[in-house]
Write a structure and sequence with these properties.
The chain has 394 residues and is an alpha/beta fold. The protein contains twelve helices and 16 strands. The strands form four sheets. A five-stranded mixed beta sheet has the order 6-5-4-7-11. A five-stranded mixed beta sheet has the order 14-13-12-15-16, with helices on both faces. Helix 2 packs across helix 3, helix 6 packs across helix 12 and helix 8 packs antiparallel against helix 10.
């Protein structure tokens, strides 16, 4: 199993070098001229920055990058392309839910090499810590087969998370308060640990490796057990002064709506989360419904109460997305989350409510759905570990 002694620092001497590497990571392979243009650096600065990165094996030069490279017609000798060597380092990402832990092992390009799931029978911090540590150790053992060290571990948790301190201030689904998760897991695994809100972690993955690549302003809205939102503004994932930027789940969408666990009424999450939809079906139908799968099935079979609950949720989600777009003006909104399993039941209402509530040209925002399994949320956690590794001060 990889040990802490295997760790090393990333050879980026300046923030500009880290930015250049990130540019190649997201957009590469690139020629040096393209690197200079995209990163806003001079060719001389690019040459100086890439030299230690190539020498240490994090970047590689190829005369022909094969299928990954764009076809670029050129006169004379073809330009050499620079790419990230994804096999240079490995990372682990972990997503914590209320009843399961999902872990992935990725390469430096955040490609999932293997994934594991373990049930979570006890939500107490000590029990979750033990289960998480065991899963990470299992992945570390698996990583030995690749012959490459694991350089970092990322953990994604729902709720109010202080990434800088590595503390989970409050997680409603785990019922945690002020848990110093990063320090505890680092002590148990010997790895550098990054802990972040799960939606922000997913947003980092979309920004660097997914549907947000190349966009300076976009949002990720997640629907399911909760309603979350990650924001990228001017190329940066926004946490806000208090770490809770993007909490559209607690924007009021119905003034006299149902009570929310946050203490207010009519929050988007109190209308459109999985639990809220189930509560609405029970209230209007007067019958028990065992879970989301049954609710979806009832709606698809024409159950009036179930269809109304999903339509109401879609309307609320559309208005919530319009609020985000009106305030921040993103080029794209990516809708994801486990709640998309019922997308056919409320897609039309989302679209109509968004169009009705979006102001002026904000209605032109590209709103798209992107169903992602929980392994992709764990991949988001790995992306935060990669981000920390690249940008950590030497």
């Amino acid at each position: 199993m990889s040990s802490p002694a295997d760790t090393e620092t990333f050879p980026a001497a300046t923030p500009a070098a880290a930015h250049l590497f990130t540019t190649v990571l997201s957009h590469g392979p690139l020629t040096r001229l393209e690197m200079a243009r995209r990163a806003g650096l001079s060719p001389a600065a690019v040459t100086k920055a890439v030299r230690p990165l190539i020498a240490s094996g994090y970047l590689a030069e190829d005369a022909d990058a094969g299928a990954e490279a764009e076809v670029r017609p050129a006169l004379g000798r073809p330009a050499t392309l620079v790419r990230v060597d994804g096999g240079r380092a490995l990372f682990i990402g972990v997503k914590l839910t209320g009843d399961e832990i999902i872990g992935v092992l990725t390469d430096l390009c955040c490609r999932i090499l293997l994934a594991r799931r373990v049930p979570l029978a006890d939500r107490e911090p000590d029990a979750v810590l033990d289960a998480t540590t065991d899963l990470v150790r299992e992945l570390l053992t698996e990583a030995d087969g690749y012959g490459v060290r694991v350089a970092g571990l990322g953990i994604a948790v729902s709720g109010d998370v202080d990434r800088a301190e590595g503390v989970v201030r409050y997680s409603p689904f785990l019922d945690w308060h002020d848990v110093p998760l990063a320090a505890l897991v680092a002590a148990g695994t010997g790895l550098p640990v990054t802990v972040d809100n799960d939606v922000r972690a997913l947003t980092v993955a979309e920004q660097w490796f997914g549907a947000g690549v190349g966009l300076s302003d976009f949002a990720v809205v997640t629907v399911g057990a909760g309603i979350g939102c990650g924001l990228v503004v001017h190329g940066r994932v926004v946490a806000g002064a208090h770490g809770v930027a993007g909490e559209i789940g607690h924007v009021t969408v119905e003034a006299d709506g149902p009570p929310c666990h946050c203490g207010n009424r009519g929050c988007l999450e109190a209308v459109a989360s999985d639990g809220a939809i189930l509560a609405r079906i029970r209230e209007t139908g007067g019958t028990e419904v065992t879970g989301t799968a049954e609710a979806v099935e009832r709606a698809r079979q024409g159950d009036t109460g179930a269809r109304e609950a999903y339509a109401r949720a879609g309307n609320a989600i559309g208005r919530g997305i319009a609020t985000v777009v009106n305030l921040f003006g993103p080029a794209r909104v990516i809708i994801s989350g486990e709640g998309l399993a019922a997308h056919d039941l409320f897609a039309e209402q989302i679209r109509e409510a968004f169009q009705a509530a979006a102001f002026g040209s904000a209605a032109q925002c590209d709103v798209r759905t992107r169903p992602l399994p929980f392994e992709e949320w764990a991949r988001g956690a790995a992306a935060t570990a990669i981000q920390s590794f690249i940008t950590a001060p030497n």
